[in-house]
Amino acid sequence: MDDLEGLRLPAPAKLNLMLRIVGRRQDGYHLLQTVFQFIDRCDWISLRHRRDGRIRLETPLSGVPEAMNLTVRAAQVLREAAGIRAGASIAIDKNLPMGGGLGGGSSDAATTLLGLNHLWRAGLSVDELGALGLKLGADVPVFIKGRAAWAEGVGEELFPLELPEPWYVVVIPNCHVATGAIFAASNLTRYNKRITINDFLAGQQENHCLPVVADLYTEVASALDALSSFSPAKLTGTGACVFAEFSLETEAREVAAKLARAWRVFVARGLNKSPLMGALGLIRN
What we know:
Blueprint: E1 6-24, E2 30-50, E3 55-57, H1 70-82, E4 87-93, H2 104-119, H3 126-136, H4 140-145, E5 149-152, E6 157-160, E7 167-172, H5 179-184, H6 197-201, H7 210-216, H8 218-228, E8 234-235, E9 242-246, H9 249-259, E10 264-271, H10 275-280
Parallel strand pairs: 3-4
Antiparallel strand pairs: 1-2, 2-4, 2-5, 2-10, 5-6, 7-9, 7-10, 8-9
């Protein structure tokens, strides 16, 4: 449905194809180099205009107070920035694991910002929405911009990339990684050498958080070992999900079927353009 009263939109997952920690700001935030690519695995966000001015989450998440949910916060930030009094009902069909490194919460927030900007006729540009999104989380802008990208800063300086779009096998370990604990770990290397996009394309694709995560979460270490027996496995973000790429869908599905005997696993296609952009007609060539 796509009208002035309601929308149902995808909130796709992302993978970090590499993640380098290259410094730390005085405010404690870490400086990164990373590469984002979307996959065709999504949450779904339903938005409906409310004429009473309330922002209501119809599908609360266990353990997350409604006021702290990123979709609710996104709606509030947009309403304040646009100077409007509109309300909205928000429902989340949650398919992406929390604490998995797939960007589910950030993607939900980005979809809410873009969807309500359309539904409320708020009139903010994609760049303005990206700036609002950064207030909610460092990963939100890439979901708003909707392009696979090389990212620097805290993840908000984005440079679009055209990458191969392989098939990925993604394993979901039975744990929830606390991102804050990983970045606070004493054994995290924080001042690694910067590389270039060409270095990444030539194969420098390590994740500096991986040793810390694997040390703290045995489930992640085991998942990496299991998947690596078929293809080199990587950690996305700070985890917990791990992934490996395959050229053929048939091969990816065969591997996933074998791993599914012991693991939660799914197959997804890499995407350089977010399916959300197509849903909203925002692709501009």
